[in-house]
Amino acid sequence: MARVNEHYLKLKSSYLFSEIARRVRDFQAAHPEARIIRLGIGDVTRPLPPAVVRALHEAVDEMARAESFRGYGPETGYDFLTSLVAEHDYGALGVSVAPDEIFVSDGAKQDSGNIQEIFAPDCVVALTDPVYPVYLDSNVMAGRAGVLDDTGRYDRVAYLPCVAENGFRPPLPDRRVDLVYLCFPNNPTGAVLERDALRAWVEWARQHEAVLLFDAAYEAYIREPGVPHSIYEIEGAREVAVEFRSFSKSAGFTGTRCAFTVVPKEVAGRGPDGARVALNPLWFRRQSTKFNGVPYIVQKGAAAVYADEGRRQVRELIDFYMDNARIIRDGLEAAGLTVHGGRNAPYIWVKTPPGLSSWDFFDLLLTEAHVVGTPGSGFGPSGEGYFRLTGFGRREDTEEAVARIKTRLPR
Ligand code: PLP
């Protein structure tokens, strides 16, 4: 019988979302009259912008005619999209990224999970804690994480605690690390890294010959001036950083699927003989071997985001979710809770009241206000004592959930 990849057996079970579902199910069964509102949702709820929908329809019609039909496209994306990305996402920031450094894909989840394949199995990985679970689990699967200890940490991973005391900014590693996943604006804390903090990371990576894997999936939510939208706004970052972006949370593509990863020509690792090896051709090889490109139709939809009308509509979508985030922030603060995030990200990171764990607070909100969020401890050990709510819900639900929390939570 074939032996399985034993590293998969080291994964923590996906306890978080199944446990949430179980508790909600049990509560609903006992209280069938309760209208439960889900504010823990990490998915968008508004439809695609009309300019995108129009472009998708037009592309479908092209596929219906022999003279404009297209089969396999370039594995790394059509030029019409990569050149728009280079111009609007980077050129507009004063950053130079060439179209052949941009790899269009079907998701930042896939890319941030797959990128570790081009690095050696014994590379040491650092993660912010709490963290988007994909970075950790993909490294567990690859055998890079070691074993789970009794504090809920894998013994070969460097955890960088992001807590209120450090403003949710990860400390620089105090031991040798090869790869660092940074996600800013952050899921789940909603924190951002200002220019100085990002500069410190780039300098550290250059000094220690580490690679930064920078997930900017929520870049479009940055509101405050002066917060970098791309790591390449920092001098020297092209030598040490890969950047992930996505159309999911900006243009509502969570179900449509389009994203891209930037691998500059300068960023490198080392081969077995110690010689520098550029990552761009390795990622090209990986993608062109294992991926056949994003559908033409979808890339046409994504390209529509860069025209005036598409840009305005995307801005409106983000404004909508950020208004929800503000409603949640203001309401919870009025209810006497300590609230972080929600200013440059759709995520609101709530400190649980004294004496309540993340799960205690989950139960309290569910039973008293019939509101469901996500216990912070599910995102990593340093998430204990926090709770995540999101601005992705419907407006009426968001307002009602906040009103219930304000009136029904014990003071
Ligand atoms: N990166 C982060 C930090 C996320 O929170 C998410 C989705 O929740 C993703 C990536 C996934 O993006 P995509 O839909 O492009 O796969």
Give the number of DSSP strands: 15
CATH superfamily of the largest domain, by name, is: Type I PLP-dependent aspartate aminotransferase-like (Major domain)
Helix/strand-derived category reads alpha/beta
Low-confidence stretches: none
Q: What is the tally of helical segments?
A: 12
For the record, the CATH class of the largest domain is Alpha Beta
User: Remind me, CATH topology of the largest domain?
Assistant: Aspartate Aminotransferase, domain 2
Number of structural units classed as domains: 2
Radius of gyration: 22 Å
Name the strands of the widest sheet in spatial order. Answer: 2-8-7-6-5-3-4
Termini, distance in Å?
59 Å
CATH architecture of the largest domain: 3-Layer(aba) Sandwich
The outline comes out as globular
- How much of the sequence lies in strands comes to 5-15%
Bound molecules: pyridoxal-5'-phosphate
Mean pLDDT: 96
Largest sheet: 7 strands, mixed
Indicate the percent of residues in helices: 25-40%
